[in-house]
Structure formats: structure tokens, C-alpha cells
Amino acid sequence: MVKVLRPGFYSTIQDLGRLGAMHYGVPQSGVMDRYATGLANMLLGNDETAAVLEMTMTGCVLAFETDTYICLSGADMSPKLNDQIIACHKPIKIMAGDVLSFGKLQTGFRCYLAVSGGFKTKAVLASRSMYQGITKQAVLLKDDELPIAASKTLNTVHHAGIRLNSKYLLDPLLPVYKGPEFELLTPEQQSLLLSLDFTISATHNRMGYHLKELLPNVLEAIITAPVLPGTVQLTPSGTLIVLMRDCQTTGGYPRVLQLSDMAMCVLAQKLTGQTVCFELL
């Protein structure tokens, strides 16, 4: 068991998402940065679907009541175990009674904590990902108790090192595909879309990121159509909205671009005021 002493700003349990339920109007959810979580789970010998703890901007304070191994990845939030600095992207042995805490945010925006065997919170619609109205609660709260399996040994054998791509935490480039309505844009609009630097506005969360710079727009709204995490919508005002993991399942704004999987990870680690640009694949 892991007890939440302090939950941080916005911390949730997430896995790869609630796949196969969008026809019910249920968002996919899941981890915002699949690269980071895939790495952490791999280093612990976990299945890629194992649930992790996603922390946004500030970290939790957690008390472990069970022996286990952990691995941290994604943003560097200056982690400490029993007030001693520990490394990210490396399996760490945990003993019952240990306390994990976090300090200043150094790079990135979202940090991930994986435990050996994954978090064992209740699954709803085949996923442990927290989402308002689907799971009992939407975020972690003080004194929550998170079940985990006891682990005395690490479930992996080391035969090679791992080359970490940490540059993506600072990379402004978002590789994208053309969206269904991309060709409705004029050549001038297309050129602007793929050449401008766009600033992350203060309006960003797990549902979507709004970009500050406007793209001149005369397109009419479309008939409500399917959208996915990574869909870039163009509103009548010219605002671009990049849909993220908790996005709705349909929308009526033109879908001008679609982020690649890696672009989703890059954007998930961006803060207000940072800039991004699109590169067509």
C-alpha cells in the first residue's frame, strides 16, 4: 500500500487509457506522456499497460507501507527518498516506511511514478485511468491509499543500457499529419499554420491545450465528427485547440492537423508561455 500524505497540484492514476469505449461517449484518458511511462515500466519489467501515478507541475508526498521498486520518468521534480536526492530513469529499491517527496520543478511539466507490478486501483471499463464521472474520484486526495503488490525482487534482467531521449522535454517541434479538413484551408493558411511559432496559453489541461496566436479563419463549422487525442481544431475565432487525452469524442470545429504519438508526449511536457511549432510528416 502507498499512502498519499500530500497529493500535489494535480495527480492521478493513469494507464494507457480506456480503449474501446468512445462509442459510449467515454473519453480515452490515459497517460499524457506515453514515452516517459513506457520507459519507467520497461525499466521495472512491468507490462506496458501497468498503471502509473501522473504528477502535474508539483509532486506528491508518499509513504510506502510495502517493499517494492519504483522508477521515475518524465519531468524532473527533484525527487527525494527519505530526504535524500534520488535519480530518475533508474529502478530504486523501496522499503516499508520510506517516504518519497519532490521539490522544485527543473524540466518538463509531468512526472511519472511507476511501481513494480503497477498500481492496483479499481479498473472501470478495463482501465484504471482516473476521469470525472467514470471513476470514483478524478484526482488523488490526501490520505488516499493506493494498493500495490509487494515486491522483494526486481522483475527484470539487465543485459544492456538504455539511451534516454531527454531532449523531447525541451523540444518545441510537434510532428503532425494533415487533418481531415486541412485541404479546406487556403495555401496561405496552410503556410502560416506550418511556419508560425505558437505560444501555450494559460488554458491547458488534460482535455486540451489552447494556443495564443490566431490563424485567420473563414471556414464554417463542420457537422459534428469524431475527434481523437492529438486532433488540432480551428475555432471560428482562429484559436487552435490541441485535444489531449481527456478530450471529448466528437467535435464541430474543422480538424486541421493530427499530432503524432511523440508530439503528444512533447506537448504534454510544455508549460504556459512556452512555444511550439508544427512539422508536417
From TrEMBL:
<dbReference type="InterPro" id="IPR052708">
    <property type="entry name" value="PxpC"/>
</dbReference>
<dbReference type="InterPro" id="IPR003778">
    <property type="entry name" value="CT_A_B"/>
</dbReference>
<keyword id="KW-0378">Hydrolase</keyword>
<protein>
    <submittedName>
        <fullName>Biotin-dependent carboxyltransferase family protein</fullName>
    </submittedName>
</protein>
<feature type="domain" description="Carboxyltransferase">
    <location>
        <begin position="23"/>
        <end position="281"/>
    </location>
</feature>
<dbReference type="Pfam" id="PF02626">
    <property type="entry name" value="CT_A_B"/>
</dbReference>
<dbReference type="InterPro" id="IPR029000">
    <property type="entry name" value="Cyclophilin-like_dom_sf"/>
</dbReference>
<keyword id="KW-0067">ATP-binding</keyword>
<keyword id="KW-0547">Nucleotide-binding</keyword>
